[in-house]
């Protein structure tokens, strides 16, 4: 293996802090945050001191200049992991001194360029961000794949900071696009990830200005999390008007609604016949190169959709109350799920997607005031907290002083197992365990009556998972009706 160095380097000061030649070929890149708006020289002087006991292959300074401190052939002392540093090119990037340790845009842009250069010289066609530590460290990259890792996986550190963590997926997709591969983040790449990771990745797609511009970014993002194949509820499966919109949405027009000449794909979709009954049909869907474009088209649809001359979602534009915005969307005929508003509010609140949490008087949803760990949300609007308690059997709403202000009526709780459920004509998918993180068995129940022996919570449905008496596996309880 012949190692080379980047031609983007404009300043070189080789550090004595390294282990000599690496013992593993390069198949990782580990970007770090310096925690300071440093210059290439300043970083070089610091790493030139033996007492520093640290180094990196490259640094990107506050002006976007690239410094080299350890040649690419050598193992730097950067990520608190010998195994990682032997195979990774390490890059320190000038950043703010406080969380989220933001980079200036020129630094981020240079990081993209440098990663492209590193990949090209090392024969890689793709840069991957797998998001999850275990998944990444156990991943065996193909010969043309480079994998991103982060310092926080190897030491109790914030590095590279939440700012870059939110952009790791973006970094990977932009570098891959410049390498000639498929650009953009694909919805499929989010499947099986934790909700926290989905928030981090998709949240990174919104600029600060978009987040401030109104409520649409937070609502769109919550819809995305709910509907992009994350989870196995009817809602997720039926979400064909969002982030995978049909080529034509009957009788709706909006800026960009004409899709002629653009990419499409065909798939089966479930449609409401107008009476709440679902039927399956094949339809053409808009094919986006990446999630960013999909979100942009979706936003254009929500803001501009017209039925004839009437705005379909009248009042949405400029709306700064997300609960109201979601009601407008639902009432415009977007969703028939009676819990649609509470589900989206819960996601927005759980992940603090709203920029409008002005109240300090939080309503907390817990099993008991003492049981802090049971908290599933803190809400500023009582109605939203009540919805969350309603959707989670056994939970109540407490005000800031710990006084119980609401306990849901028990009548729409699921009964104690064993109980019987009815499944409609299309059946429901059977999973090998209680969560969308478990593999599907590939089977569906088909229509009929089934006995549930046990309920467990797990990623996906709000009501949890039920174990089938037949031993075939687990089904999402949102999809069925207890009888
Ligand atoms: Zn670091």
Proportion in β-strands = 15-25%
Work out the number of β strands.
Answer: 25
Mean pLDDT: 82
Question: At the first level of CATH, what is the class of the largest domain?
Answer: Alpha Beta
Strand order in the sheet with the most strands: 1-5-4-7-3-9-8
Q: What small molecules does this complex bind?
A: zinc ion
Helix content: 25-40%
CATH homologous superfamily placement of the largest domain: Peptidoglycan recognition protein-like
Uncertain ranges:
229-242, 355-360
Number of helices: 14
Number of domains: 4
Question: How does CATH name the architecture of the largest domain?
Answer: 3-Layer(aba) Sandwich
The global form is globular
CATH topology (level 3) name of the largest domain? Lysozyme-like
- Class from secondary-structure proportions: alpha+beta
Major sheet: 7 strands, mixed
Gyration radius, in Å: 25 Å
In angstroms, what separates the terminal alpha carbons? 66 Å
Oligomer: single chain
Give your account of this protein's structure.
There is one protein chain. With 483 residues, this protein is α+β, with helices and mostly antiparallel strands. The protein has four domains: 9-183, Lysozyme-like (3-Layer(aba) Sandwich), CATH 3.40.80; 208-345, no CATH class; 358-406, no CATH class; 419-482, SH3 type barrels, CATH 2.30.30. Helix content is 27%, strand content 22%. It has helices spanning 40-48, 82-87, 105-121, 133-137, 161-165, 168-178, 195-203, 208-212, 216-227, 234-238, 291-304, 322-331, 340-350, 382-391, and strands at residues 9-12, 18-21, 28-33, 58-60, 66-68, 74-76, 88-93, 126-128, 145-148, 252-253, 264-272, 278-286, 306-307, 310-311, 363-366, 377-379, 396-398, 404-406, 419-423, 429-431, 440-444, 448-456, 465-468, 474-476, 481-482. Helix 4 (133-137) links the parallel strand 8 (126-128) and strand 9 (145-148).
């Amino acid at each position: 293996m012949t190692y080379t160095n980047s031609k983007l380097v404009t300043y070189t000061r080789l550090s004595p802090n390294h282990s000599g030649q690496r013992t593993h070929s390069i198949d990782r890149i580990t970007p770090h945050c310096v925690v300071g708006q440093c210059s290439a020289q300043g970083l070089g002087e610091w790493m030139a001191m033996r007492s520093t006991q640290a180094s990196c292959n490259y640094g990107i300074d506050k002006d976007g200049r690239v410094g080299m401190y350890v040649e690419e052939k050598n193992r730097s002392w950067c990520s608190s992991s010998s195994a990682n540093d032997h195979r990774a090119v390490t890059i320190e990037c000038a950043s703010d001194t406080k969380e989220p340790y933001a980079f200036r845009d020129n630094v981020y842009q240079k990081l993209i360029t440098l990663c492209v250069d590193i990949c090209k010289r090392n024969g890689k066609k793709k840069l991957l961000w797998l998001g999850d530590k275990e998944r990444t460290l156990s991943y065996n990259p193909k010969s043309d794949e480079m994998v991103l890792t982060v310092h926080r996986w190897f030491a109790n550190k914030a590095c590279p900071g939440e700012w870059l963590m939110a952009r790791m997926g973006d970094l990977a997709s932009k570098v891959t696009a410049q390498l000639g591969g498929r650009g953009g983040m694909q919805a499929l790449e989010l499947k099986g990830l934790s909700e926290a990771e989905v928030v981090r990745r998709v949240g990174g797609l919104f600029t600060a200005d978009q987040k401030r511009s109104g409520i649409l970014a937070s609502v769109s993002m919550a819809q995305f999390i709910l509907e992009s194949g994350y989870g196995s509820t009817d809602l997720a499966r039926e979400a064909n008007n969002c982030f995978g919109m049909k080529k034509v949405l009957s009788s709706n027009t909006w800026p960009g609604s004409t899709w002629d000449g653009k990419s499409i794909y065909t798939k089966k979709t479930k449609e409401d016949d107008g009476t709440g009954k679902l039927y399956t049909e094949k339809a053409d869907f808009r094919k986006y190169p990446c999630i960013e474009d999909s979100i942009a088209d979706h936003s254009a649809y929500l803001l501009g959709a017209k039925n004839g001359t009437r705005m379909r979602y009248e009042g949405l534009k400029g709306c700064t109350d997300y609960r109201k915005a979601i009601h407008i969307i639902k009432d415009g005929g977007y969703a028939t799920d009676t819990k649609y508003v509470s589900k989206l509010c819960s996601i927005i609140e759980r992940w603090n997607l709203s920029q409008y949490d002005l109240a300090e008087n939080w309503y907390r949803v817990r099993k008991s005031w003492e049981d802090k760990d049971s908290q599933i949300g803190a809400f500023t609007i009582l109605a939203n907290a009540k919805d969350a308690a309603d959707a989670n059997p056994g939970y109540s709403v407490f005000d800031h002083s710990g006084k119980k202000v609401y306990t849901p009526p028990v009548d729409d709780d699921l009964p104690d197992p064993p109980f019987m459920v009815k499944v409609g004509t299309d059946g429901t998918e059977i999973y090998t365990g209680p969560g969308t993180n478990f593999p599907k068995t590939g089977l569906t129940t088909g229509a009929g009556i089934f006995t549930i022996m046990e309920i467990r919570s797990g990623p996906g449905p709000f009501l949890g998972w039920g174990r089938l008496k037949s031993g075939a596996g687990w089904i999402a309880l949102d999809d069925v009706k207890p009888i």
